[in-house]
Write a structure and sequence with these properties.
alpha+beta, 35 strands, about 25% strand
Length: about 900
């Protein structure tokens, strides 16, 4: 049975039992900053298990793409470790429980997959008699094949929140796969017993004190690794030998002129490349981009590691983007987003691959310098710290460092390298903190929603509402009242206030009642359906159950709507000018500006920016009608509405349509006509990461403020250079030309003075053990001029040691030189300048023939120069 057939069979099995098949969620968790990646099938459903959100379906089944990266170094070396994998799962949100899932699991394993019953073992949590009874009495598993295990393996929990016992299904792969121990059994670390399916019974809630209370609505969360099941059904020893991986590995082997199964190092390389390329391809298609931190760093590390293993195959040119094509071809039926994003994915991978190859070249140059330094100092090895810096900064593999160093007769301190690597792993482990499902404050908000019901939002059509204060909180505690000057959180039954979401900032508002006024400056939804208004009591006393009028700051809302509607026009204009690969990667919509992040691979040119701006303003001036309506997600996609991939959308979606120009799914507030945008002006375009650009712009009154500021700036410049406004360009060009001429004159005079000073200084030559030494304080405005004087003196002297010092404000500049004929006598310009720099509160160094340094104590410069002869004498061998 192929991986594709297993996937389809699983989903259809549960569909026939009332489950809704949902597509895989994005690898980038939606609205969950606590984790970098979707690492399990249940991650997209966390809000349903915690009660933060209400599910549309009580029974769901998915094949979820997942990334886990704690054990990257083990990938390819074991049969089961992967960074990217697919998890088959079925979920119940307060519907069925153990009595249903256990028999279903057995039926699927034994009848649909035809696994022999005598090969199957079951584990349960040590105290879960209920699960034991179902497995034993209902399903008919002999009690000796049901193993009770402890909390560390068979109880699932993450901090505060829903949790419960697990039951796992194992396959006995035979004694030949075991460790040979008479005690070998389920739970042993060897490869004999393979866990293929974990059934989690969500039946308790753990509070902050570690107490467990039964949940009223129990849940089911199961996870079956597709790659593991495929390895069992296809009778192979490793996940990498299944059709899921072999197609990709065979493609790579053919590309590199290698063959799988002949050499261990070649096999390892093929496995790592296949695994990492799958992870990178899927992650980039979901919106991740290579970078230096967070998930961007993970992508960069995986990609670079795959490229380095390409060198084991003998590949020196970019190749990973070709492997990604094979991944897309194999997986696009199950994950159509891969085909839709193919051009973007391949371009990102190739660009990053090419950059890394340049980085490897730079690393080679640095390694060459380290080798030369080691030889010059008589060392026999490259330090472990230097080798680790090469690895950590440039991704330069230790094996490559060792190989190149060995060619030059040097070793590498591997022990220190490994110690530095372990320190990095410790830092990474400590950074991976388990985060609570629901904080203490979150539990409070959830309880409030259950007690009070959901807040009704009417802000799309109204900016005022008569409301009742349902709850009042101060410092996370419910209160009866609050007085003027106090900060409060307020729950209303009805609100016209837009809560911050989708990149749009929240409304500001005033709550008014008899002798009462509250200023609202923050509005958000900590749990689905509950709107929290944060603000300050300006006057009077606010009490629970008071009636108030909520009044949105209308000008602020209108300015925000201008910028939000403009982002839709901008998105469309970017696609028209730059290409269809452009996709929104983030946005911020505020009253005074908009910020729009998008995928693109080069700086946007001035001409392109002008054209983008023109297209948006053409749409504005066309006075396009802005329609907002709700429809089904499938219908919206049929109509061509743009959706942000990875965003969470329900059955019904809100569509914002601007004439025939733009149509997007959006929950934000908008204008009724594009003409209300007024004007659109881009004021900044920049890079925010590899393949990621950012445009910042203003609209309406913001454009007027922008133009006024520019006009005032021009008036100020005109005043400074004493020119009429219409003559500014010509007058500025004349001043620039005049300035260049003056700079050339100054430089010529400076050189003349320097030559004159050089002649004067030559009369100050001293001797240290017969070696000519010239040390002096000179007038040089910067390091370049100082080096120039040293060069002139060296040419004049022919043989000797030179050290010049100058001051520039509160800084000291030092340059030293040693002529080549003196190098064998122990004289080294870098060591000399380093020693003198200490005397002026600084440091530096460099090559044996020329070096420079700096300091921060100008008053000690002459005293330091006076010591040069003494230091030179000490260095002469």
């Amino acid at each position: 049975m192929t991986g594709k057939e297993i996937r389809e069979k699983y989903l259809r099995f549960f569909e026939q039992r009332g489950h809704q098949i949902l597509p895989s969620a994005s690898l980038i968790p939606h609205n969950d900053p606590s984790i970098l990646w979707t690492a399990a099938g249940m991650v997209p459903f966390k809000p349903f298990f915690t009660g933060q959100a209400v599910p549309e379906y009580q029974r769901v089944t998915t094949c979820q793409k997942c990334i886990r990266t704690p054990d990257i170094e083990s990938v390819g070396r074991t049969a089961r470790h992967h960074t990217f994998f697919e998890m088959l799962g079925n979920f119940s949100f307060g519907d069925y429980f153990k009595e249903s899932i256990i028999p279903w699991a057995w039926e699927f394993i034994t009848k649909e997959l035809n696994l022999p019953k005598e090969k199957l073992w079951i584990t349960i949590y040590q105290d879960d008699d209920e699960a034991f009874e179902i497995w034993n009495k209902v399903v008919g598993i002999p009690s000796e094949r049901i193993v009770r295990l402890g909390k560390d393996t068979n109880f699932w929990e993450i901090g505060v929140g829903p949790c419960g016992p697990c039951s796992e299904i194992y396959v006995d792969l035979g004694e030949a796969r075991g460790c040979g121990s008479p005690e070998c059994q389920v739970g042993c670390d060897c490869d004999r017993f393979l866990e293929i399916w974990n059934l989690v019974f969500i039946q308790f809630f753990r509070d902050e004190e570690g107490n467990y209370s039964p949940l009223e609505n129990k849940g089911i969360d199961t996870g079956m690794g597709l790659e593991r099941v495929a390895s069992v059904l296809q009778g192979v020893a490793s996940n990498f030998d299944t059709d899921i991986f072999r197609e990709i590995m065979d493609f790579t082997a053919n590309l590199a002129g290698q063959e799988y199964g002949q050499k261990a190092d070649i096999d390892l390389a093929l496995k790592v490349i296949a695994d990492h390329c799958r992870a990178v391809t899927f992650a980039v298609s979901d919106g991740a981009l290579p970078g230096n931190e967070g998930r961007g760093y993970v992508i960069r590390r995986l990609l670079r590691r795959a490229v380095r293993f390409g060198r084991v195959l003998g590949v020196r040119e970019p190749f990973l983007y070709k492997v990604a094509q094979a991944v897309i071809k194999q997986m696009q039926d199950a994950y159509p987003e891969l085909k839709q994003k193919a051009e973007h994915v391949l371009r990102v991978i190739r660009t990053e691959e090419e950059r890394f190859l340049e980085t490897l070249a730079a690393g080679s140059d640095i390694l060459s310098a380290l080798i030369n330094e080691a030889k010059a100092s008589g060392a026999s090895e490259i330090t472990g710290d230097d080798a680790f810096k090469l690895y950590d900064t440039f991704g330069f593999p230790l094996e490559l460092t060792q190989e190149i160093a060995e060619e030059q007769g040097l070793a590498v301190d591997v022990e220190v390298f490994n110690a530095a690597m372990e320190e990095q792993r410790k830092r990474a482990r400590s950074a991976r903190q388990e985060t609570e499902y629901l904080s203490e404050r979150g539990v409070l908000y959830k309880a409030l929603r259950e007690e009070l019901g959901e807040t009704r939002f009417i802000g799309y059509s109204a900016l005022e509402a008569d409301s009742n204060i349902m709850a009042l909180l101060k410092d996370g505690m419910q209160e009866i009242s609050a007085v003027a000057g106090e900060e409060v959180e307020i729950v209303l039954d009805v609100t016209p206030c837009y809560a911050e979401s989708g990149g749009q900032v929240a409304d500001h508002a005033i709550l008014r009642g008899p002798d009462l006024e509250v200023e609202i400056t923050s509005v958000n939804k900590p749990v689905e359906g509950l709107v929290i208004h944060r603000g300050k009591v300006l006057s009077g006393i606010i009490k629970r159950h008071d009636s108030v009028k909520a009044i949105v700051d209308q000008p602020r809302r209108q300015d925000t709507a201008r910028n939000h509607s403009a982002t839709h026009l901008l998105h469309k204009a970017l696609k028209e000018v730059l290409g269809d690969h452009v996709n929104q990667a983030g946005s911020l919509v505020e009253p005074d500006r908009l910020r729009f992040d998008f995928t693109h691979y080069a700086a946007v040119t001035s001409e392109e920016l002008r054209r983008i701006e023109e297209i948006v303003n053409e749409a504005v001036l066309s006075n396009l009608s802005i329609e907002v309506f709700e429809t089904s997600l499938s219908k919206a996609k049929e109509m061509g509405a743009a959706a942000l991939f990875g965003e969470k959308y329900g059955k019904q979606v809100r569509v914002v349509k601007m004439g025939d120009f733009s149509m997007e799914l959006c929950g934000g507030t908008h204008l009724t006509s594009t003409a209300e945008v007024g004007l659109f002006k881009i004021f900044n375009e920049t890079s925010v990461g590899a393949g990621l650009r950012r445009i910042e712009a203003v609209t309406g009154t913001g454009v007027l403020k922008y133009l006024k500021a520019k006009e005032e700036q021009l008036e100020e410049i005109a005043s400074v250079i004493k020119s009429p406004m219409h003559e500014l360009v010509r007058r500025s060009e004349a001043l620039v030309q005049q300035n260049k001429s003056l700079e050339q004159e100054i430089e010529a005079l400076r050189n003349k003075l320097a030559k004159s000073e050089v002649q004067d200084i030559l009369g100050n030559i001293k001797r240290a053990k017969e070696v000519p030494v010239l040390a002096s304080v000179v007038a040089a405005p910067d390091m370049d001029n100082l080096r120039g004087m040293v060069d002139m003196l060296r040419d004049k002297m022919g043989s000797g040691v030179i050290l010049l010092g100058s001051t520039a404000g509160e800084k000291v500049n030092l340059v030293a030189a040693v002529t080549k004929d003196l190098h064998g006598q122990g004289l080294h310009a870098g060591n000399l300048v380093k020693e003198i720099a200490k005397m002026v509160g600084g440091g530096g160094g460099g090559r044996p023939d020329m070096a420079q340094a700096g300091g921060k104590n100008p008053e000690k410069l002459q005293e330091a120069i006076d010591q040069v002869c003494r230091v030179v004498e000490g260095q002469i061998k």
